[in-house]
Design brief:
This protein has 14 helices and 17 strands. By secondary structure, it is α/β, with parallel strands linked by helices. The strands form 4 sheets. A 7-stranded parallel β-sheet has the order 3-2-1-6-7-8-9, sandwiched between helices. Helix 4 (about 115-125) links the parallel strand 6 (about 105-110) and strand 7 (about 130-135). Helix 1 packs across helix 14 (about 380-400). It starts with 10 loop residues before the first strand and ends in a 5-residue tail after the last helix. This is Glycosyl transferase family 1 domain-containing protein.
């Protein structure tokens, strides 16, 4: 019965600028789902904007973020409320805050102060006497251009202001926590809580593996390497291509590819040696991970956990987070070192070439081909949901919220 659930009767408001309903593994949907399953009445307030800004430098097309809102709301049991931005510049949004929703909520959970309007939501919530939970994602400052430098300064200013109106901070990797601490003198309670992937969607499927490898013309003895997501310049795609070829593997690039990167690949005579796929929704992405022997990431991604759940070997950069959390995990192989980064797990130093380190890591991961596949459930959403409900239960008790 609903009244026996730990969060029964609690009204929770989750606030974020972005919510791609086509990607239900993201925190917005999974937080809302977990808390609703715990008995809470959950409202997810987001903008109508895509996570791809229409003026992005890579020339990527904006998505339709709301196309599965009704389906997810029905399936997971939470309410999605979208509002059109008054103004948007990259990830910075000006949106009229949901004052009535804030007033009627017992707890307000905001994601990322860099989005601007989330700071205003936190301020209003605190003025109304509501506990405020804050998720901090940013890992560091970016300085690709003057615009990025200005953007980084504005983001730190927003984080500084917002930090005085939160009761606690959650972050996913070590660099997140360090960035928050260097943005404000305030020290609210902080918790490192890595995200997870939905094991109902991401698991090994032998039939899909055979089918997709046939479609990609990959032989049974060949090693298939996948690189997925936003295929932008900062991901060092050309280095990945060179490394996969040097390791004598077959590489598939799946995602929205920056045209400038493809031109580099073509100009270097590498285009005939790789496969390409467009952006894949979660179910098809799970199929690609099942088909792949190795999945490579050059920056931190939620998809670490999605690929690991299918039993693929996952090649990721070595960093403090890797050393603290992933070192020794059978599904993960690290490359390079934390010294590669100017922003840990996100932005590489100028002049760094990843090819040699990636080649070595891909060869190490590929050596496991033929071994029984075992999905890593260390970061499954079932575990994350349990933790989140327990966290909110303790917050409810601390603030004596009866719902």
């Amino acid at each position: 019965m609903n009244d026996q659930k730990p969060l029964s009767g609690l009204n929770l408001l989750l606030v974020s600028a972005f919510f791609e309903s086509e990607m239900p593994s993201l925190r917005e949907a999974q937080y809302a789902r977990a808390l609703a399953e715990g008995g809470a009445n959950v409202t997810l307030f987001v903008s109508t904007g895509s996570n791809v800004w229409k003026y992005n430098r890579a020339g990527l097309k904006p998505t339709d973020p709301a196309q599965r809102d009704e389906q997810l709301s029905s399936e997971f049991g939470f309410t999605v409320v979208r509002r059109r931005p008054i103004l948007r510049v990259s990830d910075l949004f000006v949106i009229w805050p949901p004052i009535r929703l804030i007033w009627s909520s017992d707890i307000v959970h905001v994601i990322e102060f860099r989005q601007g309007f989330t700071v205003l939501v936190a301020i209003i919530a605190k003025l109304f006497g509501k506990p405020v939970v804050y998720d901090h994602e940013q890992r560091g400052d970016r300085h690709y251009t003057v615009f990025h430098t200005i953007d980084s300064v504005v983001r730190r200013a927003l984080i500084f202001i917002g930090s005085f109106f939160v009761d606690c901070v959650r972050h996913t990797v070590i660099a997140n926590g360090q960035h928050f601490k260097t943005s404000t003198p305030r020290r609210p309670p902080m918790f490192m809580r890595p995200l997870g992937a939905d094991e109902a969607r991401f698991s090994f499927d032998a039939d899909r593996r055979r089918t997709l490898r046939t479609e990609l013309n990959v032989g049974p003895s060949e090693v298939l390497v996948a690189f997925t997501g936003k295929l932008t310049e900062d991901k060092r795609i050309v280095d990945v291509v060179k490394a996969a070829i040097a390791a004598e593997t077959v590489l598939v690039l799946a995602g929205r590819l920056d045209s400038r990167i493809w031109n580099q690949i073509v100009s270097q005579g590498l285009s005939e040696k790789i496969r390409r796929m467009e952006w894949l929704p979660p179910d098809q992405l799970a199929g690609l991970y099942s088909a792949s022997d190795v999945v490579v990431f050059t920056t931190f991604s939620l998809s670490y956990w999605e690929a690991a759940l299918t039993g693929a070997k996952v090649v990721v950069p070595k960093s403090r987070f890797f050393d603290a959390v992933l070192a020794g995990e059978d599904n993960f192989v690290g490359f390079g070192s934390a010294d590669m980064f100017s922003v840990e797990d996100e932005q590489y130093k100028a002049g760094i070439d990843l090819t040699e380190a990636l080649t070595s890591a891909i060869r190490e991961a590929a050596a496991a081909k033929g071994s029984p596949r075992k999905g890593s459930k260390m970061f499954s959403w079932s575990r994350r949901r349990t933790e989140l409900v327990e966290f909110y239960g303790s917050l409810r008790a601390e603030h004596r919220l009866n719902g």
